Amino acid sequence: MLRLSILVLSLSSLIWGKPLASTMKVLGRREALPAGFTLTEPASPDTILKLRIALAQSNPAGLEDALYDVSTPSSPNYGQFLTKEEAASFVVPSPETQATVNAWLAQHDIDATPLTPSGDWLSFQVPVSKANEIFEAEFNVYTHGDTGRQTIRTMSYSIPQELQGHLTVVYPTTTRALQSDNSAVASSCANEITPSCLQSLYGIPTTPATQSSNKIGVAGFDEQYADDQDLKTFLKTYRPDTSDTTTFTVQTLDGGSNSQQPSDAGTEASLDIQYTVGVATNVSTIFISAGEQNHDGDLEGFLDMANFLLNEDSLPQVFTTSYGPNENDIPLDLSINVCNAYAQLGARGVSVLFASGDGGVSGTQYDSSCSGEFIVPFPCGCPYHTSVGSTNGISPETAADFSSGGFSNYFARPSYQDTAVSAYLDFLGDKYKGLYNASGRGFPDISTQGVNFDVVIDTEVQQVSGTSASSPTFASVIALINDELIAAGKSPLGFLNPWLYSTASDALNDITEGDNPGCGTDGFSATTGWDPVTGWGTPNYAKLRAAAGL
């Protein structure tokens, strides 16, 4: 999993601070600078900031109900997905909220642009001097010691009291800029994984898909590019049965691109594209590349990607992402807004998948020294997507020790998980009491192989490992089942979890060995049934197909 390392900047009232006006209320504040950052100087008053604000959504509970209504196999509305307008209607800000926020914007002569169909996110540009004034903030320049990268952020910001309950997030403000850490680690079907290994292990068919409307979307960030010639070499080597013209299409946002210079080929992008195109035979694959001209600041396209999809009339039925920050690096209100975007996608029939992370119980990346509660990657805690962990070995297949898993500190356990998670907590007993949130959403939901994947990068075969490999693999399985469903005149699977935790729970290969160490512990253990290392286990295509009604 490639890390969006989104750490936070915090309040320091002793540095260039000023007292808050009596009518202002603090909306965002953090207490300590992240490791490696130093305060450099006040930001130039004339520097233009691209800010976005989140308005209170009118009916997020109704969105959740609608999502489960179309995603739960026992529901009479199962598979009757919402339109873009229907999904957006649940999060359209109330007339009062719109009027209040618009009056405030007009008062400050700010022209804002809606970013989503519902208008719950607005963007605008203002100079630092004006941002400091209207948000009682102090935007400063901060420098990362190792990279020298500078970013402009504030340590605290406030909004007028009359906006309380109407404006929930101002962003970017107290978070810092992305730094990526390529976790697809070079490593040396027992010693290497290829498409044929996955097909053999999981019974994945090689029969080409037939439905032109069936698509997989693959997220690309951090100037990671997928090289078409490398894909052709990969397919010629590992899938010689596919057409010589097999390729992928590209969509871009935020000034994104997909350089075809061989030396620009990215490990993450190459892995994701080669294993979606190479496993989901003949399913149309779209590489969605987010550039650096983003409007969501620190997330560098992460939130923009969700909003980009929400604005599309035609969506890929499966969307896979192998990047992510840690949950505690993102403000709660922002996390909720991003999670609700995935709920809208699910309600519209998209299976949203994310790699669970490569740090065991220490977050996106392994850390043996972390103390206190186990660290949760984001958006693993969001209940409206499917989190994918990793396994390795073939006889038996066991949990990969890097497979991130655990329980969210932000999001409560969803009802579809109650039975499965309660059973695991009974198995766990008092072990690690106080180190995790026993009432939080558990993850991952499922897993696939994630070690020693052969990938062609800049014309050379390399072996890479990580949950980055697992999410596109499971995405390919779901895309092939969707193809059969569409051909049979049925709806695609959409949001997977209610189905995975009920009808399909017996259609996965249970992984009962291995654990996911981190933070100076052995981490959680895999066991019979669901566990926070491998979820329900790995796919059995024939059983999943039957569970889907085929």
From TrEMBL:
<comment type="function">
    <text>Secreted tripeptidyl-peptidase which degrades proteins at acidic pHs and is involved in virulence.</text>
</comment>
<dbReference type="GO" id="GO:0005576">
    <property type="term" value="C:extracellular region"/>
</dbReference>
<dbReference type="Pfam" id="PF00082">
    <property type="entry name" value="Peptidase_S8"/>
</dbReference>
<feature type="active site" description="Charge relay system">
    <location>
        <position position="268"/>
    </location>
</feature>
<dbReference type="InterPro" id="IPR030400">
    <property type="entry name" value="Sedolisin_dom"/>
</dbReference>
<feature type="binding site">
    <location>
        <position position="511"/>
    </location>
    <ligand>
        <name>Ca(2+)</name>
    </ligand>
</feature>
<dbReference type="GO" id="GO:0008240">
    <property type="term" value="F:tripeptidyl-peptidase activity"/>
</dbReference>
<dbReference type="GO" id="GO:0046872">
    <property type="term" value="F:metal ion binding"/>
</dbReference>
<keyword id="KW-0720">Serine protease</keyword>
<keyword id="KW-0732">Signal</keyword>
<feature type="binding site">
    <location>
        <position position="531"/>
    </location>
    <ligand>
        <name>Ca(2+)</name>
    </ligand>
</feature>
<feature type="binding site">
    <location>
        <position position="510"/>
    </location>
    <ligand>
        <name>Ca(2+)</name>
    </ligand>
</feature>
<feature type="signal peptide">
    <location>
        <begin position="1"/>
        <end position="17"/>
    </location>
</feature>
<dbReference type="InterPro" id="IPR050819">
    <property type="entry name" value="Tripeptidyl-peptidase_I"/>
</dbReference>
<keyword id="KW-0325">Glycoprotein</keyword>
<feature type="active site" description="Charge relay system">
    <location>
        <position position="272"/>
    </location>
</feature>
<feature type="active site" description="Charge relay system">
    <location>
        <position position="468"/>
    </location>
</feature>
<keyword id="KW-0843">Virulence</keyword>
<protein>
    <recommendedName>
        <fullName>tripeptidyl-peptidase II</fullName>
        <ecNumber>3.4.14.10</ecNumber>
    </recommendedName>
</protein>
<dbReference type="GO" id="GO:0004252">
    <property type="term" value="F:serine-type endopeptidase activity"/>
</dbReference>
<dbReference type="GO" id="GO:0006508">
    <property type="term" value="P:proteolysis"/>
</dbReference>
<keyword id="KW-0865">Zymogen</keyword>
<keyword id="KW-0106">Calcium</keyword>
<dbReference type="Pfam" id="PF09286">
    <property type="entry name" value="Pro-kuma_activ"/>
</dbReference>
<keyword id="KW-0378">Hydrolase</keyword>
<dbReference type="InterPro" id="IPR015366">
    <property type="entry name" value="S53_propep"/>
</dbReference>
<dbReference type="InterPro" id="IPR036852">
    <property type="entry name" value="Peptidase_S8/S53_dom_sf"/>
</dbReference>
<feature type="domain" description="Peptidase S53">
    <location>
        <begin position="192"/>
        <end position="550"/>
    </location>
</feature>
<dbReference type="InterPro" id="IPR000209">
    <property type="entry name" value="Peptidase_S8/S53_dom"/>
</dbReference>
<keyword id="KW-0645">Protease</keyword>
<keyword id="KW-0479">Metal-binding</keyword>
<feature type="binding site">
    <location>
        <position position="529"/>
    </location>
    <ligand>
        <name>Ca(2+)</name>
    </ligand>
</feature>
<keyword id="KW-0964">Secreted</keyword>
